[in-house]
């Protein structure tokens, strides 16, 4: 059973960088051909895909967030991480990590991140 767990600060100041980590257990992030995504849900809105990192380390980002987003991984810890720079209150959301096998078959529970001074 694959499990994902998000971690990171729940409060970030405007203009700073949001940093989250997803720890995966029950499966390796280097297993072909899975992708590992970050998805967010702002209050009162739908889900928004942020970006992903493939099993081989290649990354893809939402065009609307690409200039501010970086996804990386630590294979020794079986973790992948999100960094979103220059945040504004519009980046306030519940952030999820999920495994992408054509469908999002495993999700973390989500973590609330609020951008506020």
Tally of helical runs? 0
Gross geometry = globular
Proportion of residues in extended strands: over 45%
Q: Helices and strands: which structural class?
A: mainly beta
Number of strands: 11
Report on the architecture of this protein.
With 117 residues, the protein is mainly β. Strands 2, 4, 5, 6, 9, 10 and 11 form a seven-stranded mixed sheet that branches. The model has no long low-confidence stretch (mean pLDDT 97). The protein has strands at 3-7, 11-12, 18-25, 35-41, 48-54, 59-61, 69-74, 79-84, 93-100, 104-107, 111-115. The protein is globular. It is built from no helices and eleven strands.
Layout of SSEs?
Layout: E1 3-7, E2 11-12, E3 18-25, E4 35-41, E5 48-54, E6 59-61, E7 69-74, E8 79-84, E9 93-100, E10 104-107, E11 111-115
Explain briefly what this protein structure is.
By secondary structure, this protein is mainly β.
Could you name the key traits of this structure?
117 residues, seven-stranded mixed β-sheet, four-stranded antiparallel β-sheet, 0% helix, single chain, mainly beta
């Amino acid at each position: 059973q694959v499990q994902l767990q998000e971690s990171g600060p729940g409060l970030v100041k405007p203009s700073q960088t949001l940093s989250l980590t997803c720890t995966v257990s029950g499966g390796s992030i280097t297993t072909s051909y899975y992708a590992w995504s970050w998805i967010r849900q702002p209050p009162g809105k739908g889900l928004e895909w942020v970006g992903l990192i493939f099993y081989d380390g290649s990354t893809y980002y939402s065009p609307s967030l690409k200039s501010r987003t970086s996804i990386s991984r630590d294979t020794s810890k079986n973790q992948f991480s999100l960094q979103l720079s220059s945040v504004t209150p519009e980046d306030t959301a519940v952030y999820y990590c999920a495994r992408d096998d054509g469908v999002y078959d495993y999700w973390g529970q989500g973590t609330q991140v609020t951008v506020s001074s």
